[in-house]
Specification:
Elements lengths: L2 H4 L5 H13 L2 H8 L6 H11 L1 H18 L3 H12 L7 E4 L2 E4 L7 H5 L1 E7 L2 E6 L2 H11 L21 H17 L1
Antiparallel strand pairs: 1-2, 3-4
Helix pairs in contact: 2-3, 2-5, 3-4, 6-8
Length: 182
């Protein structure tokens, strides 16, 4: 791809892609909604985000503007997930002469209240359902890089005297080419 094309201004479709990408951060779906073909949507999204620096920059700026506008930061989201992940049901219940019951809402801390998914009354009393603790723990583990591969994780560190991967590959190809001639 020519350098001139890489630095060109964004087209209407590319601006639409940026807007659509911000909806769910799904590149393939954003490409489809922006009007690119369904068949190569994933590849097109990757190209737009990786080969077009102005598109990646537009996405970063729009995300930063949204964070400022909504005052929802990654830190706040992670804190809320941590509330769910580290909730202890013993803090939500109280025992009495008629058995174990949920604590009154006004006595719960913010962290305890955040862990509650549903609270309802039945003929037998109140029922309590917590958010999925395992899912919250998995989200935190992913965030910390404990499981799964992160898309933006930095490359592994190499020793200073180790050759770059490109040079190793070039030498290996040259070696293979020399073997074929012999």
């Amino acid at each position: 791809m020519a350098k001139k094309q890489m630095k060109a201004r964004m087209t209407v479709r590319q601006r639409r892609f940026v807007a659509e990408y911000l909806i769910d951060l799904n590149g393939a779906q954003a490409a489809i909604r922006a009007g690119y073909g369904v068949k190569g949507a994933g590849q097109k999204a990757w190209q737009l985000l990786n080969w077009r620096p102005q598109i990646a920059e537009a996405v970063r700026e729009a995300m930063k503007a949204r964070e400022t506008r909504t005052m929802i930061t990654a830190d706040k989201v992670l804190q809320e997930i941590a509330r769910i992940a580290f909730a202890d049901i013993r803090g939500l219940l109280q025992s009495g002469p008629d058995g174990i019951r949920p604590k009154p809402i006004e006595s719960l801390t913010a962290a305890e209240a955040a862990a509650i998914a549903e609270l309802w009354t039945t003929e037998k009393g109140m029922r309590l359902r917590l958010h999925d603790k395992r899912a919250a723990l998995l989200d935190i583990a992913r965030h910390l890089g404990l499981i799964g591969k992160q898309a933006q994780s930095p490359p592994g560190l190499r020793d200073k005297d180790e050759l770059p991967a490109r040079e190793i590959l070039r030498r290996k190809l040259a070696q293979l080419a020399g073997e074929r001639k012999a």
